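ARCHIVE RECORD
Type: protein–small molecule complex
Small molecule: cytidine-5'-triphosphate
Source of inputs: curated submission
Record status: active
Notes field left blank by submitter.
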Amino acid sequence: MKTIITFGTFDVFHVGHLNILRRAKMLGDRLVVGISSDALNMKKKARLPVYLQNERMEIIEALRCVDEVFVEESLELKADYIRQFNAQTLVMGDDWRGKFDHLAPLCEVVYLTRTPTISTTSIIETIKIR
Ligand code: CTP
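STRUCTURE (tokenized, with ligand):
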């Protein structure tokens, strides 16, 4: 059984999120997703998510390609989460390319290309303008 782990906020769910989760799942048998807590998102992006963490967890957990979700409390704990879930592969979007190479002794590290043009930030901006 090959376990894949990935992380993100997944706020205002969009097709870029779906694409990376589907592609991550195709790399193994079981996909575990760490969803950034509201507090971590405040630190990382300096804003509270539109959808709070329990709603984001419910949405991601309901996807056919996702087997398990948990709350990611800190960016510094990736190695612990990888061990805890016994993950063989860490998948990140290529906006993070190179940033997690130090975890390579622990598991395979794969950066997948982001879906062009779409992001939670751009969706929020579009809604504001309309
Ligand atoms: N992602 C992707 N393609 C996109 C947007 C996001 O592959 N167009 C991936 C990211 O690389 C990450 C995961 O989806 O691995 C979760 O990203 P997240 O930061 O939650 O979404 P963004 O839309 O990038 O959010 P924001 O605009 O707030 O930074």
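CURATOR ANNOTATION: The domain at 3-129 is CATH 3.40.50.620 (Rossmann fold).
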